[in-house]
Design goal:
single chain, alpha+beta, Ribosomal Protein L22, Chain A, four-stranded antiparallel β-sheet, three-stranded antiparallel β-sheet, globular, binds coenzyme A
């Protein structure tokens, strides 16, 4: 769910999304005030002031949530499994792109081929715009995976091979890219909403 154009706090955004999610589940009125708890937990230092967001609904259930900001844009996701979301400016990712920091060794071989095409490959070379979008997609996939894992960037992006994970791109505001990642666990539901 996108929350654009206003300085919405991340907790207010999560509440708005959870309210919609809960109302669908319970067929309750959208006017009902949802008395839910939200918080953060940092798996690195144990702090409850920052880190992975969590929510607890009035019935005690704890759906998985994630959120991301880019400029005025804020996106939240809710799912029955550990989930992550990331939104990035395509131009900003291009400007700070460093394949050694972002790419897994098996992905780096592919990236190098695109950056240094041999003469007979030139016809197939992707346009700079397409390459920028692909890099933003790779970045968003990796940050979404790291949020779903809960480690964030304490796990280097280069340790993540996107092909090993379940990721999806979602419609994003002009100039941005956004992706989700979900880690399905057996024995529970499986939907996520953005
Ligand atoms: C999570 C992270 C990848 C997000 O980077 P970003 O692109 O700058 O920011 P985004 O807007 O996309 O996401 C921010 C949100 O990520 C979430 N987040 C933060 N840490 C997270 C974690 N470990 N796992 C999952 N989600 C996390 C939070 O909800 C945060 O928003 P909030 O502060 O309003 O609650 C990055 O900030 C990070 O790795 N942080 C953790 C680093 C860490 O653990 N350091 C050790 C501290 S002791």
């Amino acid at each position: 769910m996108w929350h654009s154009g206003s300085p919405t706090s991340s907790d207010a955004a999560l509440r708005a999304h959870l309210h919609r999610w809960w109302s669908r589940c319970e067929l309750a009125s959208l006017e009902t005030t949802l008395d839910l708890e939200t918080g953060r937990h940092c798996p690195t230092c144990g702090s409850d002031a920052h880190g992975r967001p969590w929510v607890r609904l009035p019935d005690g259930t704890t759906p998985h949530v994630s959120l991301s900001r880019c400029g005025d844009h804020l996106v939240t996701v809710v799912a029955d499994h550990p989930v992550g979301v990331d939104v990035e400016s395509i131009a900003a990712v291009s400007a700070r792109w460093d394949p050694t920091l972002v790419l897994h060794p098996s992905e780096a071989a592919h990236d190098l081929k695109e950056m240094r095409p041999r003469a007979h490959d030139l016809k197939e070379m992707r346009t700079p715009g397409t390459q920028a979008q692909e890099r933003a997609a790779t970045w968003c996939h990796k940050e979404a995976i790291l949020k779903a894992l809960g480690t964030g960037l304490t796990t280097p992006m280069s340790e993540i091979r996107v092909a090993d994970w379940e990721v999806a791109d979602i419609p994003a505001p002009q100039g941005c890219w956004a992706s989700t990642a979900i880690i399905r666990q057996t024995g529970s539901g499986g939907s996520s909403t953005a």
